[in-house]
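Q: Could you fold this chain for me?
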Amino acid sequence: MKLQHLSTWMSDHVAAVVLAVGIVALAWPASFTWIPTSSVNWLLGVVMFGMGLTLRPNDFATVLVRPLPVLVGCAAQFSIMPLVAWALCKVFALPAEIAVGVILVGCCPGGTASNIITYLAKGDTALSVCMTGISTLCAPFLTPLLTWWLAGETVDVDVWAMMLSVVQVVILPIVLGLLVRWLLPQVLATVVSLLPSLSTMAVAVIIGIVLSANAARVLSCGWLIVWVVVLHNLCGLVLGYGVGRALRLAAPQRHAIAIEVGMQNSGLATSLAASHFAAYPLATIPGAIFSVWHNFSGALAAHLFRRQSA
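A: Sure. Below is the predicted structure, expressed as structure tokens.
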């Protein structure tokens, strides 16, 4: 019971947990520098495995029953966020090693935290889960191709290697999670309540590894990256909501699309930056900061949307 209470507390206070870890990593880098950066991929795999454990075939039935909101949401996901990222890089004249990190965040699929935030916002949770699943399945193709299109002029982007990485750290763990759910339902029933805390801990450690390894650089130019990340996220939330409103979708669907577009799988962006852009150490930072920030902005958006629905 104590573990279940801890899991519930951590899932309810994700923002506080990741913020605390971020502060510790910057103030005392040695607290995380002993963990190899190669662990980032394994930790992201843990998060994706947990996502697979929670998915059911019925979660994708929304595509057949209501295809328009799903298609609109996924199209907005892979158009608004990449283009806003590219525009912000141009407006702020970001150096290549930061720009590629910002663009990576924009080109990633929706994050799993969006489903929880949509639920808290009284949005269409089924739509959110379906959009996350579909955009994640599209990620092995769209994330590398969009990154190459938007950042290929300034940095070398190995599209095929990135595709393989996304399959390894995202698709395979999800498939493994689905198989465990199907083959061992009794085991799953005993551990499913602990999944939120495991995912939160994995994301927090990823942030700690990245920030501690680049603490001096972050402290010297961190505010610029913070402002870009904040604007990127807010643009996603506002424009995602605007797309839903322009198509006259119901309020719960508008809320789900706004949150799904604004909240990215920034852990994947951090993993890809560490694996494929090691020559640009700061490329991992936008994803780490996005992981911290979008939990705060998501919680605020959920509060505003919930009041709007009351």
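A (continued): The longest helix spans residues 215-246.
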